[in-house]
Amino acid sequence: MARIAHLSDIHFGAHDPRIVDAATAWLEQHRPDLVIISGDLTQRARVEQFRAASAWLNRLRAAGLKLLVIPGNHDIPLYDVMRRFAAPLDRYKRYISPDLCPWYEDDEVAILGLNTARSLTIKDGRINHDQMDMLRQRFAPVASAKTRILVTHHPLFAMPIGRGGELSEAVGQHDDAVQAASEAGVHLALAGHFHRTYAQAARKMVEKAGGALIIQAGTATSTRLRNAEPQSFNWLHVRRHDEMEIQVIVWDGAGFQRASHVEYRHDGQDWASRDVADGPVVGEVA
């Protein structure tokens, strides 16, 4: 079983230091096999914000944690127009990682991160055809027993983001991107961006979307909350590509605590969910 902590939208520059420290302590205590951070490490892509993000990532690495990190739209300068279009992710490459599409593989999982942040959009994302080819090629040789996980900052699908259920914009070139993910056999698609926790089967969102389970993470440490949803991140227990659990770990004002625990199973056609009423304490194996 792979134990994965999925954090997103850290937003150094618009963060709460207490919550950053609490998230760090939780990760150091529970020691996931991998920490995934799906973009927006900074608020405005300024040097001091990237330095703070880099120091935090180095602290996690020093604790022996493995990381897979991708950029988000906030990691591209907004007001520095020259840098925005001439060198949009240079600071990210310098302080965070030169690899914008990282790969991780072990005996249980194969994970590809794709950069969806673009200079020409303020907040929307896009996957280009070269990335779609990479998606297919990377997963092609992966053993069928492994869980294939795709990580993006912007979700592939339109998401319900408001109290009234209004939908967000889907990632650019949505139809082609969804087809590529389906052809690659992606089992889990992780993203952030909207500061909202959400999980749903892809087939229930878009026809012919493949068999992926779509998992959104809220903002882990930012003070920029939406719909009064508190800071949170996801704690995934991936047993097999057709069986997993999601625990949502939520900031309660004093620390991070489990707020929900749901088991998902794929029956060959669709994902079914079940609340784990008497589940284990956070970090333990069911």
From TrEMBL:
- A GO term, aspect molecular function: metal ion binding
The UniProt record lists the keyword Calcium = no
Q: Give the matching Gene3D superfamilies.
A: 3.60.21.10
Sequence ranges assigned to domain Calcineurin-like phosphoesterase in this UniProt record = 3-196
Q: What domain of life does the UniProt record list for this protein's source?
A: Bacteria
Q: Is the Iron keyword given for this protein?
A: yes
One Pfam family assigned to this protein is Metallophos
Keywords for this entry?
Answer: Hydrolase, Iron, Metal-binding
**PANTHER family, per this entry?**
CYCLIC NUCLEOTIDE PHOSPHODIESTERASE CBUA0032-RELATED, PHOSPHOHYDROLASE
Into which family does the record put it?
Belongs to the cyclic nucleotide phosphodiesterase class-III family.
UniProt-recorded name of the protein: Metallophosphoesterase
Q: Which organism is it from?
A: Sphingobium terrigena
